[in-house]
Amino acid sequence: MKIGIITDTHYNFRKANKAFHEYFERFYNDIFFPNLKKNKIKTVVHLGDAFDNRKGVDYWALQWAKRNVYDKFEQLGITVYSIVGNHDAYYKNTNEVNSIDVLLNEYSNIVKISSPTEIFIDDTECVFLPWICTDNEKDTFSLLEESTAKIVFGHLELSGFSVYPGHVQENGLNKNVFKKFDRVFSGHYHTSSNDGKIFYLGNPYQMFWCDVNDKRGFHIFDTDDYALEKIENPYTMFEKVYYDDDSEDIDFSSLSNKMIKLFVQKKENHLKFDKFVSQIVNANPLEFKIVENFDVYDDDVNSDEFCMEDTLSILDKYVEESEFNLNKTIIKNLLRDVYKEALEIE
Q1: How much of the chain is helix, strand and coil, in % rounded to 5?
Q2: What pLDDT does residue 25 have?
Q3: In whole angstroms, what is the distance from residue 27 CA to residue 49 CA?
Q4: Rounded to whole angstroms, how far apart are CA atoms 50 and 66?
Q5: Dihedral (C-alpha) 175, 181, 183, 187: value to the nearest 10 degrees?
Q6: pLDDT in tens, 254-266
Q7: Whole-model pTM?
Q8: Taking the CB of residue 248, how many other CB atoms lie within 10 A of it?
Q9: How crowded is residue 106: how many other Cβ atoms within 10 Å of its Cβ?
């Protein structure tokens, strides 16, 4: 049986930014739902973080999510197993109050999973693990120990996997907890990585600067032979443009409604540079920044210096270069938590 797997969709992203949701919509209209229809898929697993802000949702974004995603699942007769992720849960120590239970009650085809449980998909026994917190930790590990299932779906924070390109999670749950299972599929980290058994599938679209050139999309998993197919999203939101005086004109129209960074490698012909910049501005990008760095090369595309989480990268670098006589990993994680909390303040 083939099932679709998607994760970390983050509806209501950037406080319901309409340009980003228009970008998301292209993925659903052109890639996601057409491929579900093509493959006659009637079951989808959502691995968590359906919504972005655990404290609330913008009414416009909720209507957008229902119209563009959940109504279509219902119309196509698709059953969706929706796992609660950390962004979905209102509290940090329990998943009891969450966006999936509160916002999607009108859909009978949505199976809401806020506690660790076993479910048969067709004839395949599967373990479903929502965000592990104080309230469900004991039940989670008991289920993992007792279960005879071979497949796990979850929203997990495991050590040793890429959080985003160039950054590997140093702490978190040890992956050996899942050694008896054949396949583990997880959301939470937005970039794809795996060790042959545990698969972080990555989210469907670009959301931050570190996503540049990182292939996104969703997956189709065959429960019979364990074949996993990635359906790539060809659409991008973040573009790095490089300029020197020998640069040829590019397709400036392709930069419309995107986040653009122009890296200046050589600028002696100021008239040509100004014309180049004007053409980018006239393309009406969503955001446009110029980086006056004459030593930028293609190898730097995924460097932490220009990553999605520019602020977090700066904080991490500060901690690493400091002479703190403390555990730097703990300090970095505390700073990350404070930063994420600040982003959720309306």
Answers
A1: 35, 25, 45
A2: 98
A3: 17
A4: 12
A5: -50
A6: 999 999 999 999 8
A7: 0.87
A8: 4
A9: 10
Q: Is 12 left (phi over 0), alpha (psi -120 to 50) or beta?
A: left
The separation between CA 175 and the C-alpha centre of its own chain, rounded to angstroms, equals 20
Query: What are the angstrom distances between the C-alpha of 229 and each of 45, 70, 84, 219?
Result: 14, 23, 24, 5
DSSP codes, 56-95: ---HHHHHHHIIIIIHHHHHTT-EEEEE--TTTBSSSS--
Q: Own/partner pairs for 332-338, CB < 8 Å, 24+ apart?
A: 333/171, 336/312
Alpha-carbon span 154 to 8, nearest angstrom? 12
Cα dihedral sign for 229, 233, 234, 238? negative
| Residue pair 149/125 in contact by the 8 Å Cβ criterion | yes
Q: What DSSP line would sit under 7-27, residue for residue?
A: ----BTHHHH-HHHHHHHHHH
Residue type for 121, please? Answer: I
**Mean model confidence pLDDT for the chain:** 91
